[in-house]
Amino acid sequence: MTPSLDPLESTVETALDYTRFGSIDRREQPPASPAEQAARHHHWAQERRWVFDALKRKGASSRALEAFANCGNSLRLGLLDDELILLSNKCHNRHCQACAAEKRRSLVAAVRDRIAPIRQHVRFMTLTLRCQPVPLVDQLDRLQASFRRLRQRVFWRKHCRGGVSFVELKLGENSGAWHVHLHLLVEGEFLKQPDLAREWHAVTGDSFIVDIRGLHDDAKVAAYVAKYATKPLHANVLRSQTHLDECIAAVEGRRLVQCFGAWKGIDADAAEPSRNIVNLGTIENLAWKASIGDADAKRYYDAALRKWPQLSVFTPHPTSSDEEFVP
After folding, report:
1. Which of 58, 87, 183, 220 has its CA 20 to 30 A from that of 104?
2. Alpha-carbon distances, residue 200 vs 85, 128, 140, 243 (angstroms)
3. Cross-sheet strand order for the sheet of 278-282
């Protein structure tokens, strides 16, 4: 049997061995409950189903599918410097929007720290490929090869010291064809758009549409990086089974966010640093304790509900035949 998003569907022979395909630290964890999945993935529940089905169709390993299906299990409430935070097991799949959002926050912080002292020397840049009816994997290969050749040219070495690039994939609204772009933050000297367009055309052979803009404030930097770093799949890709399957296969093992030149010290895939966090217990247990009058549990659970209203799915609702909630 294969992993499933439905926690009621057994994925292996026995319930005790349910998570055998997960990493070592997941083997003792139960599958994500409906409440845990709702709390972590409520904002993209339908899209998550589409992505999960596509991963299965494209031959993802049982281990990867199990991790994706159980992302968010063991949901706990933590305290970090007097601020409530949510903790849970994570799948770290590049197509998981919940995990991508957390990774995005780390990258935004790292890029902002890098830019702060040199903002006047950093610019937004976009390089586009001419739209052609060719497979996505070929377009990605061509885009990344073209950018590699551009960085090897005297023009680029003279004007650009380093930066970070983000690959964007989307479908044309009318054509339905793939549009592949490279968005960048680049540190270096002033660049004239016609000069960059000429250099880009020289390495691609047919593409010359580029864009360069100044960087005026930190808010725009954060918005730019947040928009393109680990960007979720476009809605029109998610709704097309054919394009979704093609996209998942094309990006497998490929870096879509990459630092280059003097910025190589920024690790776009770095995990969040460990911090001193006080574990207050599982949300399920806190909700139960709050329901039976535990003052501390009620204080923390009510505060968590104000910050994350979706956690209300954990609130016990006793019935006449079952008046106690058993976690």
Report:
1. 58
2. 45, 9, 16, 28
3. 83-87, 76-80, 278-282
